[in-house]
Amino acid sequence: MSSTSDQGSELRSFFAGIGSGLTKMVVGHPFDTSSIKTRLQCSPPGVFKGPIDCLRQTLLKENILALYKGGLAPAISWGCSDALLMGSLHNYRILILENKLKFFTEPMPGSSDKTRLSLAGQALAGMGAGWTNGVVAHPAELVKVRLQNQMERNKSERKYSGPWPIAKEVYQQHGIRGLYRGYAATLLFRSNMAVLFSSFELCMRGFKKYEVNVSVGTASFISGGIGATFFWICALPFDNIKNRLLFDDLNKPQLKGVIDTATKIYKTGGLRNFFKGFTTVFVRAFPTNAAALGTWTYIMHAFAS
Length: 305
Description:
One of its GO terms (biological process) is mitochondrial L-ornithine transmembrane transport. This protein has helices spanning about 10-35, 35-40, 50-60, 70-100, 120-150, 165-180, 185-190, 195-210, 215-245, 260-270, 280-305; strands at about 105, 115. By secondary structure, the chain is an all-alpha fold. Helix 1 (about 10-35) crosses helix 4, helix 7 packs antiparallel against helix 9 and helix 9 crosses helix 10 (about 260-270).
């Protein structure tokens, strides 16, 4: 990215982010909330033998639409949060470039008067974008986790019919603080956007440096998938902590915070317990984020032309 941006790109990046978020919903929601990853993380030991068994039980006890259970809230939130994520990412990149922050910018190869973000600059912009979109994503994830984890109950015993009753109840009983319980875990989790976007940029530069003959769309698709893989390697333990805090009873909480939750996760299963849902995440991560970043790049190029 050069020292100047296309006129209007600051606003276009937010609209392109909506397309990115909806792409994530269509491609990734069944893996995330078929409630495979979330249910594996939050269910008591022994309920599921693994991701395949979780998927099998979900389909047997409910139906294929269960793969999109709780999907309305994520569809809205991913559209909004990816608008914030990708829009703020683009604008943070511009801000860093315009201020020529030392260590976070570097000369553009082959040019004496242009600059670009260094990989550290990409990481800084990514972390800022992750924190920004966490404001929208956290309450929606609280609703999603609680809705999905009713699956262990009989249908007649399930308390909530959809996402809105959950959000309404939490807000009425606990206010804004209830909707943002466990927010520190979300900030830790979304700090790893630094890994995602710096890895993405490193791969994109590799395609250019070694003159790999692929389109920008293909390069962004592959780079997005690789970046997402590195992201989840680093972020999954924090995702596990976050989801358990979100699922905890707000009236009689069993978890006191990030450190207490991490300690209990470790005591019940060691380091492996932090990576519960590992298989599902990695099956989901590459295609979902590859498609989302490919969509965002395509829309940005379409707007520019």
